[in-house]
Amino acid sequence: MNRLGMSCTSFDLDLLSRLTEWTEIAHIHRLYPGADPGLLARQLEVLTSGGFLVMEGSAAAGFDVRYEAAWKWDTTAGLYHFGMKDPPYLNQQQAAAWMEYRANTAPPVPLFHTNQACQVVHQLPKPDLTQGLMEIMSRRRSIRAFLEEPITLAALRDCLFAGVGITGFLDTHMPEATRMLPLKMTPSGGARNPYEAFVYALNVEGLDRGLYHYSAVDNTLGLLTHTPAVTATDLLVGQHWADQCGAVVLLVANFERPMWKYPNPTAYRVMLIEAGNISQNISLAAANHRLSTTPTAAINDSHAHNLLHLDWIEQSLVLAVLIGNPAPDAFETRNFIPNERL
Q1: Whether 284 contacts 137, CB under 8 Å
Q2: Quick one: 145 and 252 in the same domain?
Q3: pTM of the full predicted structure?
Q4: Burial class (CB in 10 A: 0-12, 13-18, 19+), 217
Q5: In degrees rounded to 5, what are phi and psi of residue 321?
Q6: Is 246 inside any structural domain?
Q7: Which CATH number characterizes residue 292's domain?
Q8: pLDDT digits (tens, 9 = 90+) for 147-172
Q9: Tens digits of per-residue pLDDT, 66-81?
């Protein structure tokens, strides 16, 4: 949880293995009658300050109690969920230096495979990329340079509805609590619908700047604040182009929805995949309006939880999708080489 680590001695490991329940400090001293009381007290303080032990009645103890009650998946999923919070990110200069280092020290990894080693049994006809859905899909690009021009409210609506809008309900004829399941344009494991969408509006025609919640069942925007606590750039760990886009759609997962039905931690993986499904629909709806999108998982988790008042255990901002008008030189057509193998 706190991303702290320490080197443990055999004594530390033995001590931790004994303290699986609330234990009086006096009893701990009785467990090690030959140990120096001062040294033992200092070691208990070290383990407590590092989060390896918790004191009854403390905030950390309360968090542990909540986690044990709320987290229905196993500890592996829990370790991944909390271990990925607020990781260190590289800035642009550091990222460029890292890529240069990798290019000079490690062989490149193939980004696709051909059928050269196989018997090609059929050459598929080339799809028509000039009209219909395929034309829209072929225009989709992740852009990191936006014009500071507004996007229309209709375009934002289409993006939200395509991603998370509830189109209807499936009557399962099951007991009342589980009878009506929401259906969307994107697949959802068990129709558990774990995602809520929030909108960080920066430059949308007819919509004041601010933070909104999108109600997928009502197709409405509810104002949370006109003055978000952090900028979009700070929320997305320094991605400066975020403040230039029209809006950022924030996809927040609510773990209790899939947990209620699926105790197997595979449901955690399915839930993460669903964010990609939603993001793709948002991107295609944006492309239909001649807009561009950039999905990103580079998120300052602490900012996200403070901004959206999320529960640290049961909710998480999984993905953000920037929507805006692409700068003319953001995607250089001269650098695009058509795939002649099609």
Answers
A1: yes
A2: yes
A3: 0.90
A4: exposed
A5: -125, 110
A6: yes
A7: 3.40.109.10
A8: 989 999 999 999 999 999 999 999 98
A9: 998 999 999 999 999 9
